[in-house]
Amino acid sequence: QVQLVESGGGLVQSGGSLRLSCAASGFTFSTVTMSWYRRAPGKERELVAFITDVDGSTNYVDSVKGRFTISRDDARNMVYLQMNSLKPEDTAVYYCSAWVDLRRYWGQGTQVTVSS
User: Fold this and answer.
1) For the chain, which end, N or C, has fewer CB atoms within 10 Å of the first or last residue's CB respectively?
2) Per-residue burial over 19-41, b = 16 or more CB atoms within 10 Å of its CB, e = otherwise
3) What is the C-alpha separation between 92 and 9, in angstroms, rounded?
4) Is the dihedral of CA 80, 81, 83, 88 positive or negative?
5) Residues paired with 111 in a beta bridge
6) Quick one: pLDDT band at residue 30, thresholds 50, 70, 90?
7) What's the whole-number average pLDDT of the chain?
């Protein structure tokens, strides 16, 4: 079965950095575009970044461009989100996600809290 397990969240001061990791299993990782989403308190879940399977191209929501970097390691079935210059508005639960066999799967989420 498909499993996505995030790790790496925590409490960090404004301007700090965190690296989120997502371990994937149960599907052919190298053939799937991987995404990071987040849900801030009282807000809708939003797409933060994705990285394609075909050529590893990436895309980001405007609010994180230049600060966040998504990457993948197909040999280890891992996807990462390096987050630099964190701001209080980045506070959210971050989710790893993948479309597999016409269904979207989600991890359990990891909390990121940025203090001012």
Assistant:
1) N
2) ebbbbbeebebeebbbbbbbeee
3) 10
4) negative
5) 93
6) very high
7) 97
How many beta carbons lie within 10 A of that of residue 70, not counting itself?
Answer: 22
Band of residue 37 on the pLDDT scale cut at 50, 70, 90: very high
Residue reference for tokens 């575009």: 33
DSSP assigned state of 54:
S
User: CB-based burial of residue 62 (10 Å sphere; 0-12 exposed, 13-18 middle, 19+ buried)?
Assistant: exposed
Give dist(CA 42, CA 16) in Å, integer: 24
* Token pair for 104: 């979207």
CA distance 32 to 44: 24
